[in-house]
UniProtKB/TrEMBL annotation:
This is Nitronate monooxygenase. GO terms for molecular function: nitronate monooxygenase activity. The keyword Phosphoprotein does not apply. PANTHER family: 2-NITROPROPANE DIOXYGENASE, 2-NITROPROPANE DIOXYGENASE-LIKE PROTEIN. Coiled coil: none annotated. It comes from Iamia majanohamensis. The keyword Zinc-finger does not apply. Keywords: Flavoprotein, FMN, Monooxygenase, Oxidoreductase.
Amino acid sequence: MRTRLTEILDVEHPVMLAGMGGVSYAELVAAVSEAGGFGSIGASTMAHSQLVEQMGEVRERTAKPFGVDLLTAAPQDFESKVRDIAKGGATVYVAGLGVPRDVVDLCHELNLLVVNMCGKVRHAIAAVEAGCDLVVAQGTEAGGHTGTVATMALVPQVVDAVDGRIPVVAAGGISDGRGLAAALTLGADGIWVGTRFIATPEAQAVPGYKDALLGLPEDGTVVTRAYTGKTCRVVRNAYTQAFEEAGGTPEPFPMQVLRSIEDGANHLGGDADARDVDPDREFMPAGQGAGAITELVPAATLVERFVDEAEAALARAGRPV
Ligand SMILES: Cc1cc2nc3c(=O)[nH]c(=O)nc-3n(C[C@H](O)[C@H](O)[C@H](O)COP(=O)(O)O)c2cc1C
């Protein structure tokens, strides 16, 4: 399935694995890239040395393109980090929070495409003006840090605002190929998928996380500041309930992250085998699409299914009644 996204990323399928902190490590990233999608390392919870190690592991597993998501737009020693990302073989740098204005030119010198996550039309316009190469329009349905506008409403508005200058990728609540078909129909060039890829054998996840997703109904998530201080969509549990009942006032990001770690409720990016994880208190970012997840499926199979189901859905939609 060729689109502007597959052209610019030099991949076969317009399916991107979200750079999920604590989840998108080398094994999952390489599986998605090797299957013809585009894998992104979620580096937000990694020390820089671990990121370098993970990039090496991706390169051992696949020769295909992959990216790195750093979450913040201006970490310490930003320039040297960006140089290391290019040196590690990544072809895309994703800024999860804010437009990375200061390093766009440097990224381009290093042949790194720059991607910006956007929850509002004005974020997308700022990203285009700063010289970013792609925007991800992420609706409120998404797992993790999220805004208030739904994917169905956001994507066409971002597509219109960007006006063909760069490709737009849709994210938030996409669980199968019907979501890819919908994204293309709304004018996007592909999809950026998080939650669905957590329920794969290759994803890293604390004990109980994948099981929680398999059992979750469509309304089993909540947007809370309990774990990071910023609005984040997670599996609703006793910890989020207690936080809301207590008035829901967090410390600012990232202090609230430390608070939830101290509370023993946040192991994201920590030891995947942590024994002290209580699934009813744990930080488990998840989107509303989780309700559609019924089984663990290998990442490569998911990439193929996304494309096959999208083609079938588009053919069905185009058929006269
Ligand atoms: C566990 C988890 C961790 C995430 N971490 C990040 C992150 O570090 N940086 C980022 O840009 N987005 C992050 N996100 C958001 C994803 O990039 C993506 O936009 C979202 O998962 C898409 O919606 P979906 O989960 O409904 O597919 C995270 C999402 C999840 C579920």
